[in-house]
Specification:
This protein is mostly beta strands. Helices cover 6% and strands 24% of the residues. It has four helices and 19 strands. The strands form four sheets. It has a seven-stranded mixed sheet, with helices on one face. Strands 2-3-4-17-8 form a five-stranded antiparallel sheet, with no helix packed on it. A hairpin with a 4-residue loop joins β5 (83-86) and β6 (91-94). Residues 1-11 have low confidence and may be disordered. It comes from Apiosordaria backusii.
């Protein structure tokens, strides 16, 4: 995608945008299902190699020896459900990710954004902080305009063609459900996290209650202001995930269901797309994220951080213990809830 910050300058004090290559594709979820191996469904994970079935509640940056993210200081973990193509013969194939714009050379993965709403008002996350955005069991629309937490954009021409609106802001091109037509240039999906924190708890039982959206409701990533509720007075960096799903190999109408229904399914068993969700575990070294927010780091331009070339970050991986690729029979597939 064309960077929204290029089109909308001056809306944020700091605006990091960088790619994180794939770390692993695995049935693990240490936030929602700590200790379970396997977890209920498959996730795609990026970030530091301390990721495992149980993420330590201390400083994970000290436990990680490498990262798949663009900045060496970032050992956080970011993950989402995977996307699969359900063929007419009943088998499932994983839809691969492709490198986003300006992330050439990355091994798929996720583009991550961190935005500060204004100079010197943002408090970076603390070691042990984690949160969840979206609802894995949601199967009906909450309204794109009101929800403003996750969306999809179908590229009908080429990989970076189409609308220049910020994510989840285009009423024509953006939907809160999976596209119902072939997308010649692939599908972009976005997950937007809350902007406000209670200032005390690093987590909560549902991994959501310690954070909140501004009182005016969920915030567009291009307009990161807004008044925080009194219960959550601390502004934190607004995090957004962006995934480019390479659906181009699955656009043959002869492979789609005979009734014309859309054949894509998230790994949590969701054929609607409303259940798109993302998990976040903070893992930046020392005060590196706070410095980046306070000094106005922009996109990948940040003198206080160390950049990693794709050939280095692509080598960072963790072992995989479950089959996630190839043709998968639904009865034996690791896709769905157990």
């Amino acid at each position: 995608m064309k960077s929204l910050f290029l089109a909308l300058p001056g809306l944020a004090h700091a605006a990091l945008r960088f790619g994180c290559s794939t770390l692993t594709i695995e049935r693990l979820d240490p936030v929602v299902e700590p200790g379970n191996n396997p977890s209920a469904h498959v996730h795609q994970v990026v970030g530091g190699n301390a990721f495992n079935a149980t993420v330590d509640t201390s400083d994970i940056s000290a436990l990680s020896s490498c990262t798949t993210c663009h900045f060496q200081e970032d050992h956080s973990n970011y993950w989402t459900a995977n996307l699969y193509f359900r063929a007419r013969n009943g088998t499932y194939k994983r839809v691969p990710q492709m490198a986003n714009e300006f992330n050439t050379g990355d091994n798929g993965g996720i583009t991550v954004y961190y935005t500060s709403p204004a100079p010197n008002v943002t408090t970076a996350f603390k070691p042990g902080f984690r949160m969840l955005a979206g609802d894995a069991v949601l199967r009906k629309s909450e309204g794109l305009g009101r929800n403003m937490q996750q969306c999809y954009r179908c590229y009908t021409k080429d990989k970076f063609g189409g609308s220049m609106y910020s994510p989840c802001m285009d009423p024509v091109y953006d939907t809160d459900h999976l596209p119902k037509q072939p997308c010649a240039g692939g599908i972009r999906s976005n997950i937007i996290f809350p902007l406000c924190w209670d200032g005390v708890n690093l987590d909560s039982p549902n991994h959501k209650d310690h954070v909140a959206h501004p009182v005016t409701g969920p915030t567009s990533f291009s307009v990161v202001g807004g008044e925080c509720p009194k219960s959550h007075p601390v502004k934190i960096p607004q995090v957004m995930y962006e995934v480019m799903w390479d659906t181009r190999q699955f656009n043959n109408p002869e492979d789609w269901p005979e009734d014309g229904s859309q054949p894509l399914v998230l790994s949590n068993g969701d054929t609607t797309g409303y259940g798109q969700h993302g998990d976040y575990v903070f893992g930046w070294e020392k005060d590196s994220l706070q410095v980046a927010m306070d000094t106005g780091c922009y996109l990948r331009n940040c003198s206080s951080l160390t950049e990693l070339p794709p050939k280095v970050k692509n080598q960072c991986q963790v072992p995989v213990s479950a089959t996630v690729d190839g043709d998968l029979d639904e009865c034996k597939s690791p896709l769905f809830y157990s």
